[in-house]
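User: Hey, quick favor. My workstation is busy. Could you predict this chain's structure for me?
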Amino acid sequence: MIAKDLRVSVRSVQRWRQMWDEGGPRALRSQGPASLPRLSEKQFTQLEAELARGPAAHGWEDQRWTLSRVKTVIGRRFHLTYTVQGVRKLLVRNGVVAVAGHGDGRWRILTDGSAGAAPSSCTSGSGLAYSPYRPALLLAPVNLI
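Assistant: No problem, here it is.
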């Protein structure tokens, strides 16, 4: 009944009961979030360099960086697994607003402090940088002409 009400397995309830019996309420306190793979500062710098090479250098025909593609690059380059939302959080935490294409095949990482950084949501005329309503398209070409 308890497991059904809490929408958990019977085994989880049994494990919690055993923890309570052995350590009281303190034993049931959260241990915090599970450890997730994280890129070091050095690895993030390497990721920026990979993104600066552009999508074509990584096998995509169109010149658009998406969170899914960045996730793929992280997996290939660093053998770490991130979710799409985890990639978004990683980039935002490191101040990345967009990866901008210059039209001549050169790419540059735009961060919060970049001169000429794209605003938090760009019009379609200048390319999409970041929109909280379309987080799967965090990174896309932004023309800097």
